[in-house]
Amino acid sequence: MKIIVNLDVMMARRKMSLNELASRVGVTNANLSILKTGKARGVRFDTLAAVCKALQCQPGDILEYSDEESELVEYTNEAVPVD
């Protein structure tokens, strides 16, 4: 299971920079960058709501579920040589 963050896509659609979005949401550029790159372990609902308000979108426009990670794990387990 993997959650994909499409924040950069929505920012590009709205022609909004990271600095501008961070200013509108009230979070640091660093924290927003962590979310944008998909490295965040979680996001507060109030932060997500503020991002959605600033970008005029829905949470589903930013977050996407993918089950592909489980396939990758299975493939990786098969590819590891056993000595």
UniProtKB/TrEMBL annotation:
Gene3D superfamilies according to UniProt: lambda repressor-like DNA-binding domains
PANTHER family: DNA-BINDING PROTEIN, DNA-BINDING PROTEIN-RELATED
Protein name listed in UniProt: Helix-turn-helix transcriptional regulator
Coiled coil: none
Superkingdom of the source species: Bacteria
Pfam families assigned: HTH_26
PROSITE patterns the record matches: HTH_CROC1
Molecular function as annotated in GO: DNA binding
HTH cro/C1-type domain segment(s): 7-62
InterPro entries: Cro/C1-type_HTH (IPR001387), Lambda_DNA-bd_dom_sf (IPR010982)
